[in-house]
Every structure is written in C-alpha cells, then in structure tokens.
Amino acid sequence: MNEVQLEVAKAYPNDSGRGIARLDPDTLLHLKLSPGDIIEIEGADTTAAKVWRADRQDWNTDTVRIDGFTRQNADVGIGERVSIRKAEAKKADSLVLAPPEEASVQFGSDAAGMVKRQILKRPVVERDIVPVMSSTNHPFMRSPGQAIPLIAVETEPEGVVLVTEDTDVELREEPISGFEKTGGGITYEDIGGLQSEIQRVREMVELPMKHPQIFKKLGIEPPQGVLLHGPPGTGKTLLAKAVANETSASFFSIAGPEIISKYYGESEQQLREIFEDATEESPSIIFIDELDSIAPKREDVTGEVERRVVAQLLTMMDGLESRGQVIVIAATNRVDSVDPALRRPGRFDREIEIGVPDETGREEILQIHTRGMPLSDDVNLGHLADETHGFVGADIESLTKEAAMKALRRYLPEIDLDEEDIPPSLIDRMIVKREDFRGALNE
Ligand code: ADP
After folding, report:
1. Does ligand 1 lie within 6 Å of residue 16's CB atom?
2. I need a labelling partner for 419 at 20 to 30 A (CA). Which of 174, 316, 321, 387 fits?
3. In whole angstroms, what is the distance from residue 223 CA to residue 345 CA?
4. What stretch of H or E contains 225?
C-alpha cells in the first residue's frame, strides 16, 4: 500500500483541536491526496485526520504537523515517526461521545447539536479523543483554547468515519473509565513563542525520560533539576505541565509559599511524601513554583522553617536514585535569590531563561488564547501583537478574556437570565470584534 513515514511536529497554533494534519505538496502528490482528504496516521495507535497543505517553510522537511490530541490518538510524541496513508472514510451513522474518567460534565439540551455542528466532516476513529470547544461556561475547561476533550466511545460503522448532517450524535454525561487517553492537559501548542526554550527543555527532560539508554551508553548523567527563571506570567508553569503531559509523566506540583506555611515538621514531611510518590509513579516531574520562597540564599533566611525545608529538599534531590525518571523543574522570577547550594551539580544544574515574548511570540499567544473564540473579520492579531509591547502571556490571556466579556455585554440585553437555555441562534451569532479588543486594551 502507498504510505510514507514522517516525523511528527507540533501543529500550527490555529490548527489545534481541529483534527488537521499538515503535509507538504510532495507528500500529497506521492500519496495522491488533495487538501480535505482523510488520512490514517499510525504510531503506536492509529487515528485519522483531515489533510491540509503545509506552509512553505515546512516543505521538504519530511514532517507531518498534528496537534496534541491527534498525537495522543496516534500515541506518538513530537519527533517520533508515524506512517501515513490515504484512508477510506465511511459516513458515520452514529457516534457516542463521553467525557474521560476524571471529568464530570453537564450538557445543555442543544449540546449534541452544537457539538455535531463543530465536528461536521471531521474524521473520527473509535477510542479517539474528540476535542470540542465550549461556548458556555463549563466546569471542565482546559485553560487555554477551552477545548473539552470527549472520547469517541462508539462509532457505527467502525473504522475511520466522518460525521455528517445525518449522523446521530449522542452525548453521555457519565465519564468513561478504562481509557488511557484523557485528552486533558497542556500541550506544546498551548505555548506561544519560546520555540528554542521548549526545544531545550525537551532535550533535558524528555530525552532522558524516554531514552535513558542513550545517557547510559555515553556515560553521562541525565539532569536531575532544571531551573526556569524569568518574569511572572511568561509560561514557566505552562511549560513544565506541557513537558509532563507530552511525556506522559506523572506531574507533582509544589507551591513554594504554601509549603512554607505548614506547621512544624509538616513541610518536610510533605516534601518527603511528594518525592516518594513521584518515585513510585515514575517517570515523574516534580514542579516547584516560586523556588526562591522556599530556598532563598541561606544567609537571607531568618525563618527556621525555610532552613529546614531547604535542607530537606537537598536531601531528597541527592537521594533520588531513578536518575532521569524523576526530574525536578523549579521556577523562579528571582534567580539570584535562590540558595547557591541548590544550583550545584546534581541539583538544579541546568537553567533556562524564559523571557518576555517578542512580537511574533505575542501573536502566537494571541492566536492560542483566541482559538476558541468566534472572531470577527476586523480583528487583526498581527496588529494587536504590535500594540501589546511588554505584555507577557498572562497579560495577553487576560486581554482576550476581557475582550470576550466586552462582547458578551453587547449580547446581554438579548439574554433572558430566567430561561435555562440560550437560543442556539443567538450563540451562533455571537462574535468578538475589534472594538472589544480596543475597549479591553484601553482599560
Ligand atoms: P509563570 O509560571 O511563568 O508565572 P504561567 O505559566 O503560570 O506563568 O502563565 C500564566 C498563564 O498565562 C498561563 O496559564 C497561560 O494562560 C498564560 N501564558 C503565559 N505564558 C504563555 C505563553 N508563552 N503562551 C501562551 N499562554 C501563556
């Protein structure tokens, strides 16, 4: 059968959640595909996606760009190889979707119709994660992009199917258990800018986790601790979560200030427990936010608690035996206030600066945070990126939320708060306009 092997790369920011695979013209020709056709993507698992043409800079790179959901559906990571071939997609007679295990969702009365409209013509394979955008306030929303990952628990017929107007889409509120994929969590597509920083973190963390034998062979120690430093709101936490998610590592999070405020002895015990759990559930990433608050230079330390917590942290890090399988990522915005003892070899001996985004970075972040929004044609994200000099990711996120709130206020007079459901026609009409961003910027 006609098929090609390609390396997986991350999706363009706007593609995320849409079930799209980007291929270059050579590959399209070779597989006799046209944009809009459906392909099968086979990694450790097999899924399907709709083909779009890649941008020119990706031509002849032997890559396929797919988003985090599709990567989970094919069970592959960025940089791994997949087989691609043309798929015979059948029309779906029926499709049953349910939330993953840990999620509980309530669907409104027209939810099935809304979901169907969103995923029309999208290819689905049983057991796939099918992300849908939520337009209402939802208890289970991933922070950026606001996609709710649902699982295709049943399709009729089986194989690669396409959702059509005639497909009977059923939504179950009951979470489905026993599915490995959860679809939740942050992926690299949720991070704007920071290309080279992501690359470095992947080399330091993903490589030793996935391929410990390389390090063994070369006789080098994989890193134990990575320190991310830079201003608040630039994506340090986001990056740590994305790495954990993309490597399928367990994620443990410690908030610096919180652990300090425990009763006598409790901070150390909690640290110990987290390290023990992380070792048990390895591969794991332990993320320590605001490291400077628990580990300031010891000469600055007045508090007895801080001193003991630092000592405990040092003990735990020195005692980690599963090298490369438990990695501690810490974040700080005051790298100079971190105890030098923690920055010695074998501890946090790798540092990556996470800086304020430049214009291109800001545009990507704007795309990410407006992904789930219906934008009017007059909104130009390039211009907005130009006008938001000095904004960090968190500022851009607030800006987009504020713009959406401004848009919502425009429709409020038409919404009857006593009615349980908002008319779908109104929801379909809602858009966020340039004036909403103007207003949000001027606040
Ligand atoms: P930090 O840990 O550096 O203080 P966070 O990662 O917690 O910052 O960022 C806070 C929020 O701001 C994130 O949840 C995200 O919504 C947004 N954000 C920050 N940086 C970025 C980025 N580079 N790309 C996309 N969103 C970002």
Report:
1. no
2. 174
3. 9
4. strand 225-229
Tokens of 308: 């003991």
Per-residue pLDDT for 388 more than 90? yes
| Rounded-to-integer distance, Cα 77 and Cα 206, Å | 10
* Token reading at 30: 């070779």
Q: What is the DSSP letter of 46?
A: E
Nearest ligand 1 atom, CA 394: 12
Residue 303 Cα to ligand 1 midpoint, Å, equals 30
Looking at residue 183, what is its pLDDT?
Answer: 53
Predicted local distance difference test score (pLDDT) of residue 302: 58
CB-based contact 94:168 (threshold 8 Å) = yes
Ligand 1 neighbourhood includes 256 CB (under 6 angstroms): no
| Average pLDDT score, the chain | 86
- Closest by CA to 371, choosing from 345, 392, 397, is 397
- Indicate if the pLDDT at residue 249 is higher than 90: no
Predicted confidence band at 229 (pLDDT cuts at 50, 70, 90)? Answer: very high
Sheet containing 348-353: order of strands: 250-255, 284-289, 326-332, 225-229, 348-353
Q: Per-residue pLDDT averaged across 214-220, rounded? A: 85
CA dihedral 287, 145, 359, 442 (to 10 degrees): -110
Whole-model pTM: value is 0.73
Q: Establish whether residue 394 lines the binding site of ligand 1, counting it when its CB lies within 6 angstroms of any ligand atom.
A: yes
The 8-class DSSP code of residue 338 comes to B
Q: What are phi and psi of 243, to 5 degrees?
A: -60, -45
The minimum-distance atom of ligand 1 relative to the CA of 190 is 25
184 has pLDDT over 70: no
Q: 190 C-alpha vs ligand 1 centroid, how far in Å? A: 9
